[in-house]
Amino acid sequence: xxxxxxxxxxxxxxxxxxxxxxxxxxxxxxxxxxxxxxxxxxxxxxxxxxxxxxxxxxxxxxxxxxxxxxxxxxxxxxxxxxxxxxxxxxxxxxxxxxxxxxxxxxxxxxxxxxxxxxxxxxxxxxxxxxxxxxxxxxxxxxxxxxxxxxxxxxxxxxxxxxxxxxxxxxxxxxxxxxxxxxxxxxxxxxxxxxxxxxxxxxxxxxxxxxxxxxxxxxxxxxxxxxxxxxxxxxxxxxxxxxxxxxxxxxxxxxxxxxxxxxxxxxxxxxxxxxxxxxxxxxxxxxxxxxxxxxxxxxxxxxxxxxxxxxxxxxxxxxxxxxxxxxxxxxxxxxxxxxxxxxxxxxxxxxxxxxxxxxxxxxxxxxxxxxxxxxxxxxxxxxxxxxxxxxxxxxxxxxxxxxxxxxxxxxxxxx
Length: 414
Prior knowledge:
The chain is an alpha+beta fold. Helix content is 34%, strand content 25%. The protein is built from 13 helices and 17 strands. The chain has helices spanning 2-8, 55-61, 70-76, 80-88, 90-103, 150-155, 182-191, 220-236, 251-261, 271-276, 297-322, 330-338, 351-360; strands at 17-26, 41-51, 109-112, 124-132, 137-148, 158-159, 170-171, 173-180, 208-212, 241-243, 265-269, 278-283, 289-293, 324-326, 342-347, 378-383, 406-411. The chain has a ten-stranded mixed beta sheet with strand order 1-2-8-5-4-3-16-17-15-14. Strands 10-9-11-12-13 form a five-stranded mixed beta sheet, with helices on both faces. Strands 6-7 form a two-stranded antiparallel sheet. α2 (55-61) packs across α4 (80-88) and α4 (80-88) packs across α5. It is globular, with a radius of gyration of 26 Å. Mean pLDDT is 87; it is low at 56-88 and 370-374.
């Protein structure tokens, strides 16, 4: 891709460039496969951008790590380059955060990777990190990298100085970002239960499945027609609905089938419901039952779908927050780690120290999961929202002794 960028960019007027592609990736060296989470081949979306100016953009970006300011910057700035820098590095990260929160009902921690964990070819890497309560491990959700000029110099993505301050050519500043099918695995692990999948309504293929109950030879045609009318009404309202009118399976078998597939709402309609002009609905996330009138059913279902999404998010958030700890003590750090927690701890930022933390926090007195990449604590990110002033603390690793620079999120990770 970057050789093409080099041929496309001849002037500053050719910048910025923003391209996105969907492609499959095959890992050359590969161990410990895990379905969806880590596979030899995976599908991902990757974006690449190139623009003319970096310094002022980085200065503006880094003035507020909470990221809620980007709209204000876009309104105030006169620099088109800055508009796209924010759009690529930090706004893309915010978009990934929104994908997890608003579509998948999964909370994430936004932050910046440490020097050890950042993309090797970039200046810095930002990330969203999720938490899997069943295993007590974190998982990287998506990343957005600022590549600086490392690749533009390698591939000669350059242009003449528009201000003529130097006769030397200038090199583009680049970003890249990516999101993979790993998100499917994260959804399965965060929301699934012993019965099967529990799908967030906004990404479920079918949001409602209609199952006619109590069918016999006398009422079959009338009941199925009634179900189809309700399905048509919901579909016109924008609800993704599936009617299960198979006659060779019992109602109970169908219930189990769609629970396994994680459809958010099961709608049961029998002869009595048809007469009373109501339906029985069952939520997949809580298995709670309720009856709803057919009148304004489309509005009621759409409201319920939003409620299910919010409840799923809050449940995942509460579980994450209950297992998100803060400490300055190494002993507490190791104890919390073994209790399936992710930990914010003061950290000096040195790569050798980070390697020691990972090595010395590993437990040798327990059965190690052969599929785990590491049983030691890995740095997940430097959260944008810090729990306190880390510079007042020493690094959490007792053999280090250096002053901390920031609180860093550590945990066992996929």
